[in-house]
C-alpha cells in the first residue's frame, strides 16, 4: 500500500520504525499460526464475521510483525446496555518484537478505528498471561478464568470507550 493511501500510518519509536495499515485476513494467517498456535501447523484463525470488521497489521520494513482483527460483535453472556460492542481477535506479535510497544500501538489504532465506526466498547477473550498488557490498555477482566484447549487460560476482558455513543443505524 502506498504511504499516502487511506489506512496507512507511519510510527517512529525509539525501538523501531513501524508502518500500521489495514490488511487482509490472508496477510496475517502465517503470523497468527506461528505465534498463537506454534506446533499446530494446520491451525487456521477461525474468523467468520457476521457484521462489520477490519484487520490491521504493523510492518517493520516489508515484514509483518504484528496483527489484530476487530469485528462488531456483542459480548457473549454480558449485559452491556445496548453498547456498540466490537470484539478484539487474533492479536499476535512476532516474539523478537514483543515488549517494544508495537502491539500496544496497533491495538490503540484499532480502538481509534472502532471509535470512528461508533463503537462504545471493545472486548476479547484474552490469555491470562497477557493480563498486564490488557489492563495497561484499559481492559478489565470479567467473570471466571477458563481454558481454551491448545491455547491456555483465558479471561473475558472489556474496555469501555467512554465516548457515550450507542448503536447507530447506518443510513443507505
Automatic annotation (TrEMBL):
Organism lineage string: Bacteria, Pseudomonadati, Pseudomonadota, Alphaproteobacteria, Hyphomicrobiales
Coiled coil (residue ranges): none
InterPro entries in the cross-refs: Acyl_CoA_acyltransferase, GNAT_dom
Domain N-acetyltransferase: 15-162
Protein name: GNAT family N-acetyltransferase
Pfam family name, one: Acetyltransf_7
Amino acid at each position: 500500500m502506498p504511504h499516502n493511501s487511506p489506512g496507512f500510518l507511519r510510527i517512529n519509536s525509539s525501538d523501531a520504525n513501524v508502518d500500521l495499515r489495514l490488511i487482509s485476513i490472508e496477510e496475517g494467517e502465517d503470523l497468527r499460526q506461528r505465534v498463537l498456535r506454534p506446533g499446530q501447523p494446520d491451525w487456521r484463525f477461525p474468523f467468520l464475521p457476521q457484521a462489520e470488521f477490519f484487520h490491521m497489521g504493523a510492518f517493520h520494513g516489508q515484514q509483518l510483525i504484528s496483527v489484530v482483527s476487530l469485528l462488531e460483535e456483542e459480548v457473549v453472556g454480558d449485559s452491556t446496555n445496548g453498547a456498540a460492542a466490537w470484539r478484539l481477535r487474533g492479536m499476535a506479535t512476532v516474539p523478537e518484537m514483543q515488549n517494544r510497544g508495537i502491539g500496544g500501538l496497533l491495538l490503540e489504532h484499532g480502538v481509534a478505528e472502532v471509535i470512528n465506526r461508533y463503537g462504545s466498547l471493545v472486548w476479547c477473550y484474552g490469555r491470562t498471561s497477557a493480563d498486564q498488557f490488557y489492563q495497561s490498555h484499559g481492559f478489565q477482566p470479567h467473570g471466571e478464568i477458563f481454558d481454551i484447549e491448545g491455547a491456555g487460560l483465558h479471561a473475558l476482558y472489556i474496555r469501555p470507550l467512554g465516548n457515550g455513543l450507542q448503536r447507530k443505524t447506518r443510513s443507505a
